[in-house]
Design a protein that fits this description.
InterPro entries: QseG (IPR025262). It holds the Pfam family Lipoprotein_20. It contains 6 helices and no strands. It is mainly alpha-helical and about 100 residues long. It has one domain.
């Protein structure tokens, strides 16, 4: 599937399929920019972080919600704790 053209409202249905695909995550970032910051905050609070993907998704949502400096530091620490679990295909997104 070409995630670049996936509709935002249906993107979540492809989560497990697109997990290791950078295009899926780029589209997730694009779609997140279209929601209200309050909605991003609400969604972020419901994310259960059990692996690198949850940590990454939560950081995307919190970025849209507008993190404080303290929240940003906490997210960086969380992402760093999963750095060895990130698939090699995803590392290009983390270095930007």
């Amino acid at each position: 599937m070409d995630y670049r053209w996936a509709e935002c409202k249906t993107l979540a249905a492809f989560y497990h399929e697109g997990l290791n695909n950078p295009l899926f995550w780029l589209r997730t970032i694009e779609c997140t920019q279209r929601i209200m910051s309050t909605e991003a905050q609400r969604q972020a609070s419901s994310v259960i972080v059990a692996g690198w993907d949850g940590a990454f998704y939560k950081s995307i949502l919190l970025e849209r919600a507008g993190m404080t400096v303290a929240e940003r530091r906490a997210q960086l620490v969380l992402l760093e704790s999963y750095q060895l679990q990130f698939p090699s295909s995803m590392r290009v997104l983390l270095s930007t």
